[in-house]
Amino acid sequence: MAQQRMLQFVTIGRETPEKRPAPVRTGDFDEIYREFANAKAAEQAARCSQCGVPYCQSHCPLHNNIPDWLKLTAEGRLREAYQVSQATNTFPEICGRICPQDRLCEGNCVIEQSGHGTVTIGAIEKYINDTAWEEGWVEPIRPLSERPESVGIIGAGPGGLAAADVLRRAGVQVTVYDRYDRAGGLMTYGIPGFKLEKPVVMRRVEQLRDGGVNFVANCNVGEDISFNAIRGQHDAVLIATGVYKGRELTDPGAEATGIVRALDYLTASNRQSFGDDVPEFDSGELNAAGKRVVVIGGGDTAMDCVRTAIRQGATSVKCLYRRDRANMPGSQRETQNAEEEGVEFVWLSAPGGFMGNPVEGVMVQKMRLGAPDASGRQSPEVIPGADYVEGADLVIKALGFEPEDLPTLWGVPELEVTRWGTIKADFRSHATSIPGVYAAGDIVRGASLVVWAIRDGREAAAAMLDYLGQSAQVAAE
């Protein structure tokens, strides 16, 4: 195919894949964006300016070589584009779906800064890698040679799986321990199907299993097996548990029936979509059908909850957030999608208490933004006398996540943690205070993005390979 010129952003406008209409997409949990056609993906990729300092790449946690695979896509060299894409990213088709590109690569695109509209990087990344799966370009994991060293990974989320991929390709024997019955962590049970359809995750898990990674499911470290037992079975260990402990409300009435944790709610919904038997969903405890739903929080988890409640058939869905739209931590793209689907956002609002048991209403305090806090964001202040009651049959707490107390739970007081409870690890090697033990992902950096966990997992795996090599050399001497 003849080479297609780049720099088309002046004559070709930005386009994203078509969204299914809101009344249609809210009737199921399928992904809301249609796939790019080949010609449209090439056309949009040709808008890239191929700038000398690619801010899209530098603002990607994985430093994906975005300009190169955009150019290859524009030239019709899609298999090469896939090869460049997967060289730096273990799960590119997943990042193409769930990364907040508006805050990362696309948000820092040079042509966006010049007023021409960013290149649709995420949609093209998704298209390249979905095509690779369809065409059979994704090759199985087959190490050139097997190594005797063994690594245990605690946690089958994006960080743990990314590390498992790197280690297994190097021939290391890898065992992944996870608390759930399916691997994938929050990609499987925390993120709804309309953002990330579950077969996309499961085929990566199967690729790892087929490549020789051993998975031990339904395994709670500290209960079913001790941490020291895992250390004794392996030459090195990676802790990639994520952070699962939800922040709690302390307002009066917060213990009432009908006030639930976001992760419990999302997990029940995802399990139901797998066809599992979910008593809490069937009983209505974790099912929004026919209920007035209030979600408290403004992050991506809150967006997942409100959009799930709409699809479950809630009579109304309202999201309370204590700051305004400009200061919310969640993706603006997700907020827009939620509004299109019928979610009402109640800005500058916070719960002051709850009425009834089971819950019947939320006592809402109206807020205003005052002086900036230590992070530079304006702190919300209560407006006296502006309280009111919002009726609710189901209240979902999406207040963020905190780390569990792993040194106590696992009986390893020598595992150092920060004052926030996250594991203290070297920011380059990811080594912890215990020799041969590494940590990566949210359990180190706090609740963050899937793409950061992938980066951490890959970096930790590289450091572990160095450690295993050095250990083998010492043993040989």
What report would you give on this structure?
By secondary structure, the protein is an alpha/beta fold. The protein folds into three domains: 8-135, Alpha-helical ferredoxin (Fumarate Reductase Iron-sulfur Protein, Chain B, domain 2, Orthogonal Bundle); 150-244 and 402-476, FAD/NAD(P)-binding domain (3-Layer(bba) Sandwich), CATH 3.50.50.60; 248-399, FAD/NAD(P)-binding domain (3-Layer(bba) Sandwich), CATH 3.50.50.60. The protein has 19 helices and 16 strands. It has helices at 22-25, 38-45, 55-58, 66-74, 78-88, 92-98, 110-113, 121-135, 158-169, 186-189, 198-210, 227-233, 262-274, 279-282, 300-311, 332-340, 406-409, 442-445, 450-476; strands at residues 150-154, 173-177, 214-216, 236-239, 245-246, 259-261, 292-296, 316-320, 344-346, 349-355, 361-372, 378-382, 388-391, 394-397, 401-402, 437-439. The strands form four sheets. The protein has a five-stranded parallel beta sheet, with helices on both faces. A five-stranded parallel beta sheet has the order 6-14-7-8-9. Strands 10, 11, 12 and 13 form a four-stranded antiparallel beta sheet that branches. Helix 2 crosses helix 8 and helix 9 (158-169) packs parallel to helix 19 (450-476). The mean pLDDT is 94. Residues 26-136 form the Dihydroprymidine dehydrogenase domain. Residues 151-457 form the FAD/NAD(P)-binding domain. Keywords: 4Fe-4S, Iron, Iron-sulfur, Metal-binding, Oxidoreductase. InterPro entries: DPD_II, FAD/NAD-bd_sf, FAD/NAD-binding_dom, GltD-like, Helical_ferredxn. This is NAD(P)-dependent oxidoreductase.
